[in-house]
Amino acid sequence: MVHEAAFTEIDHYFHQGYLTAQQAENDAAEALAILGISPGARILDAGCGDGRLAVRLAALGFRVTGVDRDAAQLERARAAADQSGISLAFVNAPLEEMGDIGIFDAALLWFTTWGFSDDSRNARVLRSIATRLVPGGSLALDTLNPIGVQSYLSKHPAPVVTRQGEDEQIDAYSFDLVSSRLWTNRTVRKDGVESSRLLKLSLPTIPQWEQVLKEAGLILDSVHGKEGSEFTPDSWGMVLVARAL
Ligand SMILES: C[S@@+](CC[C@H](N)C(=O)[O-])C[C@H]1O[C@@H](n2cnc3c(N)ncnc32)[C@H](O)[C@@H]1O
């Protein structure tokens, strides 16, 4: 079994039912409401993937830079920008080493982009973003709530199957209490070929987040439920807002 984290073309393929234009509209609106920023603000879309948020935010008048290490996702993002006639910057780089990409009023780590690497690399990603925010600039970090995830999995232990025609993705979840990580054993059967990966997503508790963010030069400001809902212990997803010192 290979241990890796990237959201690759195959993950994109099985997520197409979720990655709709309407979902992207909703996510962009949710992120903007949480960040409370106005057009003209500079946004770093960290791990922008196929650009579904970056392109929409740029179309609304934000000055957006999308960064991603995956060339295939960036190709999709550039094509989406071209198709919409929108001009924005895309940078093909790891978030840990983004080079001279400028300074930002706000940053996004959206759609569980943070947390699949080891602890030191995850910390470097946050530091790298924090140093590119103006003092008081905010990071919106869309992740999962470890308490809600454990409670849900205790009631719904069965693997989750996603189908695309004859192809299928089977996610078997377990929560590792020692590392506070959600393990996903992801098996994919596509075009008659089967492969498996083990994804390990770091899901700190809120007090642990306060510490992780502090070490990166950020202060936890607020915690939100998803899609405008209130954050509760049962929330599956959550969005943290952290401010740069
Ligand atoms: C789950 S996708 C989310 C994409 C986008 N944020 C969205 O909302 O659709 C995660 C993306 O982040 C990128 N990514 C994750 N960790 C990264 C890192 N350390 N450096 C650069 N890109 C990263 C992956 O290549 C992938 O395209």
* SS-based class: alpha/beta
Number of strands: 12
Question: What is the ordering of alpha helices and beta strands?
Answer: EHHEHEHEEHEHEEEEHEE
Report the bound ligands by name, code or SMILES: S-adenosylmethionine
CATH homologous superfamily classification of the largest domain = Vaccinia Virus protein VP39
CATH topology of the largest domain: Rossmann fold
| Main beta-sheet strand count, sense and barrel state | 7 strands, mixed
Q: How far apart are the termini? A: 41 Å
What's the total helix number? 7
**Major beta sheet, strand line-up:** 4-3-2-5-6-12-11
In terms of DSSP E residues, the strand content is: 25-35%
GO molecular function: methyltransferase activity
InterPro entries: Methyltransf_25, SAM-dependent_MTases_sf
Domain Methyltransferase: 43-137
Pfam family, one: Methyltransf_25
Describe this structure as you would to a colleague.
The protein has 245 residues and is α/β, with parallel strands linked by helices. It has two domains: 10-145 and 205-244, Rossmann fold (3-Layer(aba) Sandwich); 147-199. Helices cover 31% and strands 35% of the residues. The chain has seven helices and twelve strands. It has helices spanning 9-14, 21-35, 52-59, 71-84, 119-130, 146-155, 206-215; strands at 2-3, 42-46, 63-68, 89-92, 104-109, 133-144, 160-164, 167-176, 181-190, 193-202, 218-224, 237-244. The strands form two sheets. A seven-stranded mixed β-sheet has the order 4-3-2-5-6-12-11, sandwiched between helices. Strands 1-10-9-8-7 form a five-stranded mixed β-sheet. Strand 8 (167-176) and strand 9 (181-190) form a beta hairpin. Helix 2 packs across helix 3 (52-59) and helix 3 runs parallel beside helix 4. The longest helix is centred in the N-terminal third of the chain and has 15 residues, at 21-35. It is globular and about 45 Å long. Keywords: Methyltransferase, S-adenosyl-L-methionine, Transferase. Pfam families: Methyltransf_25. InterPro entries: Methyltransf_25, SAM-dependent_MTases_sf. One of its GO terms (molecular function) is methyltransferase activity. Residues 43-137 form the Methyltransferase domain.
